[in-house]
Amino acid sequence: MHESVKLCLKFYWSHFTCCFLSGSKMQLNTMARLLYSPRLLLSSWQTGPLASAPTAGLHCTTSLNVAASTPVKPKRPMNAYIRFAQGIRSSLASANPKASPTDISKLAAVQWQSLDQASKAKYEEEYKREQAVWLQKNAKYLSQLTDAQKEEIKLERQQRNEGKAKREQKRLLKELGRPKRPMNAYLRFCAENKPVVGLSKEDNKMQMKNLGMQWRRLPDAERDRYTKEAEADMKRYQEEMKKWEDKMLASENVEAVRKKNVLLPPSPASTMAKKGGMPVVGSGGSVSKPKKPSPTTGRP
């Protein structure tokens, strides 16, 4: 057996014997956990005589059930415009201290438009040179991935795209002035009781639990007040939503309207479809195939 393992076992055994003689139950439990700790397992990184050496009182294993680490993906180089904008962003921020990041980006775009072609070509050449190196590194990176890792990366990319689409939709609805959905009766009760903000996760969980208990003990008359207020707000919200959705349909912002409320008017091509055999658009926006002409008996 390897000398370091012998010394380690000798130390733990002598300490365990002392604990046993002293009769300390806490120390005995601690030593038992140490003796069966994964730190004492012989893993696959140990090579040579140690890997196959017999051990007494220890589990011996030659492999660890650990998934292979995903190789580091090479970072894609910045294109010509982003490279230019990053280079002048600090100077623009110093010259315009009150400007927001969005305003700085707009100022950088204006300067890029006025930049001469020779300077733009210089940034473009730098990008192409780094792009060629990145393509080689990325090809090597992809060749090292397993099928499971590729599937995991694909799933992560899909989740990022879905999250981005939801954020864009939320931003669009906010810009178009969509009415805000009102709170229900219970949330109105919580807001009126002024819950403390800035708490930790556990404290906030306890606070919401206490509010739930207060809500269940609330008298029926008091609870009916919150319910009636919530119903009145919901009725107002539904009326505002109806007006807003009609406005969106009139301004051709159909993507902002709920799908069940989208009733597209018949397209101008629907009239021609009846004559030319084109697909006919129904009143609900659905497309139906044109009816086949009935067979005639008097064929020449």
How would you describe what is shown here?
It comes from Anopheles stephensi. One of its GO terms (molecular function) is DNA binding. This is HMG box domain-containing protein. InterPro entries: HMG_box_dom, HMG_box_dom_sf, HMGB. The protein has about 300 residues and is mainly α. It is about 60% helix and about 0% strand. It has a two-stranded antiparallel ribbon with strand order 1-2. Strand 1 (about 280) and strand 2 form a beta hairpin.
Strand proportion, as a percent range, falls in under 5%
Low-confidence stretches: 21-28, 34-67, 277-290, 292-300
| Name of the CATH class of the domain at 185-265 | Mainly Alpha
Query: CATH-wise, what's the superfamily of the domain at 185-265?
Result: High mobility group box domain
Domain HMG box: 74-142, 179-245
GO cellular component, one term: nucleus
InterPro entries: HMG_box_dom (IPR009071), HMG_box_dom_sf (IPR036910), HMGB (IPR050342)
Pfam families: HMG_box (PF00505)
